[in-house]
Design goal:
Layout: E1 7-8, E2 11-12, H1 14-36, E3 48-49, H2 50-57, H3 61-69, E4 77-78, E5 84-86, H4 88-101, H5 106-109, E6 120-125, H6 133-146, E7 151-155, H7 161-165, H8 181-184, E8 198-199, E9 205-208, H9 215-227, H10 236-245, E10 253-257, H11 264-272, E11 275-280, H12 284-306, E12 315-320, H13 328-341, H14 354-361, H15 376-401
Parallel strand pairs: 6-10, 6-11, 7-9, 7-10, 11-12
Antiparallel strand pairs: 1-2, 3-5, 4-5, 8-9
Helix pairs in contact: 2-3, 6-15, 10-11
The protein binds adenosine-5'-triphosphate and magnesium ion.
């Protein structure tokens, strides 16, 4: 007798049930989204006061005022009370303007990499879930944009937290091939990375979004490895790097937010990277699993290297995140890490802060919100620690460029 293949003896089979749940959930989420975010409500960035703009560009507020009075450079928005404010795009224009009128100091105003300074590709990794990879990636990316660099953020995590932080809804806004998978897939639907990259509301920060589609790469690679014996095609660990190479001239820095596992995507990112950031939440359980992570990584990487993977990194840095400086046990772990890895552990740490966690809930960073939105001391403490960490990473990049 023919039986409906979705119905077992005890009723509906689990695959059919889960598929039904997925469809129900997707439909409801779509409705919810339409209510909360009507199509016209795109994520927008605050404007910057002229004081903030002046500080970012590296001129005095008075100079900026004079510039706008003389009608030179971008025209700020002027409120009824006379307060001048600039968009992030205008701050970039100010940099261009200053570099043009003061060519001797061009590099301080417009620090783009020069001929001979190679693209910095930074992979942020650790297979420990929740070790602040995404938070580290987005804060670093935004910091570098605010400092005047051209930055591409790549979301390599199928969970796509970075993508949604940057204003793209991974469930709804992406069609097939709109993630990095589109540029690294093995079949003939592969497309140029340039067509996948999106501008974001954070002007100067571009995004290669992620979503569940990225999992396809983990599934397809074993098959491709078997078929490779007969077919030509680039091996898995070179694909991320090759895709990035297509757009290399457009950026100074590429930041790759890796998934919390050591799959083919992460290995591809590590091979594409010129440097690695390993995020650490300094707690015994996390650090114990990190030692496993390092062992497994080194085993896998040595196989990849023997097969022709490029594993020369300009720097590897451990970033201590969610740090509670007054917590005794955490202090011991941080001291242990510093004694073992010395200057490879960044001197600055990202403190655990309700300001960072709360801003994250509304898919914002502290670089995006107005200072007055959070208690001032909390905000200042968090920003200070983030700036210090990001500043150290920038310093390592400059060393790699031979600037210092
Ligand atoms: N310095 C911090 N202070 C307070 N909360 C933080 C801090 N850094 C990260 N968090 C919070 O910790 C959680 C995990 O952070 P995040 O998503 O960056 O980790 P992850 O390593 O990317 O996680 P996953 O492995 O799932 O990708 C988030 O809710 C984030 O807001
Ligand atoms: Mg993450």
């Amino acid at each position: 007798m023919l039986q409906n293949k979705n119905v077992s003896a005890v009723g509906i089979t689990s695959d059919a049930k889960i598929s039904h749940h997925a469809k129900q959930l997707s439909k409801q989420l779509q409705l919810l989204r339409e209510r909360l975010f009507p199509p016209s409500s795109e994520k927008a960035l605050k404007t910057f006061s002229s004081g903030e703009a002046a500080q970012l560009v590296g001129v005095s507020d008075g100079y900026l005022r004079q510039l706008s009075l003389d009608g030179k450079g971008p025209a700020p928005d002027i409120s009824q009370t006379g307060r001048r404010s600039y968009t992030l795009g205008q701050i970039h224009e100010l940099r261009q303007h200053m570099a043009a009128i003061k060519p001797k100091d061009a590099l301080t105003y417009l620090p783009w990499r020069k001929h001979g300074e190679k693209l910095q590709t930074i992979a942020v990794a650790n297979f420990k879930g929740g070790s602040a990879k995404t938070t580290t990636s987005i804060y670093l990316a935004q910091y570098l944009v605010l400092q005047g660099y051209r930055v591409l953020a790549v979301d390599l995590d199928p969970q796509a937290s970075l993508t949604s932080m940057l204003g793209v809804q991974p469930e709804f806004d992406l069609a097939e091939g709109d993630t990095l998978y589109g540029a690294i897939r093995y079949d003939d639907k592969r497309r140029p990375l340039r067509d996948i990259i999106r501008k974001t509301y954070f002007t100067g920060l571009d995004l290669v979004p992620g979503n569940l589609e990225l999992m396809e790469f983990e599934h397809e690679t074993p098959r491709a490895l078997i078929e490779r014996k007969t077919a030509q095609g680039e091996i898995f660990f070179k694909r991320v790097g090759s895709a990035i190479a297509e757009v290399e001239a457009d950026y100074d820095v590429v930041i790759i937010d890796c998934p919390p596992q050591l799959g083919y995507l992460t290995l591809g990112a590590v091979c594409a990277a010129t440097s690695l950031l390993i995020t650490i939440h300094p707690q015994m359980v996390d650090v114990a699993s990190m030692s496993q992570f390092l062992l497994m990584t080194s085993d896998l990487l040595s196989v990849v290297r023997k097969a022709g993977g490029d594993l020369n990194h300009d720097f590897i840095r451990y970033v201590i995140t969610r740090h509670e400086p007054f917590d005794g046990p955490q202090g011991q772990i941080v001291a242990l890490l510093r004694s073992l890895f010395r200057e490879e552990v960044l001197a600055a740490t990202v403190v655990k802060s309700t300001a960072i966690a709360d801003a994250g809930l509304t898919k914002q960073t502290l670089y995006e919100i107005e200072r007055g939105q959070v208690r001032r001391t909390t905000y200042d403490r968090a920003i200070e620690s983030l700036d210090a960490v990001n500043g150290e990473i920038l310093e390592s990049m400059k060393i790699a460029w031979g600037r210092v």
